[in-house]
Amino acid sequence: xxxxxxxxxxxxxxxxxxHGFWGGPKDLQVMAQTLQNKDPSLHILxxxxxxxxxxxxxxxxGGERICKEIEEEIGNLARDGLEVTKLSLVGYSLGGLIARYxxxxxxxxGVFERIEPVNFTTFVSPHLGVRAPLRGWQDTLWNVxxxxxxxxxxxxxFMIDKFRDTNRPLLEILSDPNSVFMKGLEQFxxxxxxxxxxxxxxxxxxxxxxxxxxxxxxxxxxxxxxLPGYEDVILDPKTSFEEPELATLSFSARLVQRIKxxxxxxxxxxxxxxxxxxxxxxLVLNSTLSAIQSFRRIRRxxxxxxxxxxxxxxxPLLLPSSIQGAMEDVYQNVNNAQSHEYLFHSSxxxxxxxxxxxxxxxxxxxxxxxxxxxxxxxxLALTPLQFRMIEELNxxxxxxxxxxxxxxxxxxxxVIARTEKPAFEEGKVVLRHWVEEEFVF
Length: 441
Fold this sequence. Notes:
There is one protein chain. By secondary structure, this protein is α/β, with parallel strands linked by helices. It has 16 helices and 8 strands. The protein has one domain (13-129, 165-244, 306-438): Rossmann fold (3-Layer(aba) Sandwich). The longest helix has 25 residues, at 251-275. The radius of gyration is 22 Å and the shape is globular. The two termini are 21 Å apart. The protein is 41% helix and 9% strand. It comes from Hymenoscyphus fraxineus.
């Protein structure tokens, strides 16, 4: 347990923080301290069983490790005379997917029958995977090369895996409404996500916001309104903004927009060319070494020689009503459709206004209506599977917050102030909003 975390006799609420790819507990220190400052009685567990290269081993194994940590912590607190009655899960980046898996296991094992699930929060988590949604050589390169350098977790993130005996990608199972994972996620009192609208090259907007569009592609053309009291970092959910038609812009404005787009793409081309002689070799060597270590760990794990009794976490993934027919045409149809990446050039409506969207219940809680991001704009070239995942996940109802990080070029790290540095100060604003406005203590 990290020394900044204290336990008091009032402790009944356990909050678990889960880091992302290649990360560790140190990434979540500012987050943990922000929570502790708000409520010293909150018991915080910063997960450590997936530290560093252990994140290569797969979302499923990562989720099982986290589940074991949670059960052990509940047991330790019970021995100290402290009963856990509430549980919250918080995932950063890949940690959000691991948290979703762990939630399903906890549900399947009956933990939620005696402990109330309260908050489920993800920060910039790739809920729809990480495949590039646009067509082109750089996207094809990323979809093919990226999946094979991130090992088991990479196959799952790019949805080219066949998860256990389901013969379907893990992320599809995580979003199946009849799976323990969706049933577990549904139990939480509040589901919240934070997504970057710019400068997040690790997990782009569409996947972290569970959206089929990206209305923030041409950010310079938008008139954004921000939530008062949070330093122009978080968009105000009660206002809408207009994205002007390109055709209505003057020739000079269109020219400037195209130049800016070209300049945004230029670094990728330059970096890729410079990266070929050294970077590719280094990445392949590191990936090869990590693969050997990861496969050895997984083999020991599956044989019961690891730190977790794997079989104790192999709960039925699909509920009885959905098992029949689950192995039939679904996966084949999706697999055959993967090569057709449609990019629609029309929007869902004739209006260009982009708005935010909550369920009617959430609207009432927020004190007003919100127009929804994703309701307008061009539909991205996602796969049919991803469109289904969007529909099913959004059906649960999420409180979505859109973050505009400007001081740091790497907004993925800045959004939670992953390290203490001036460029990441906006992340502290995000965390302050979370504990003041979202987190149910």
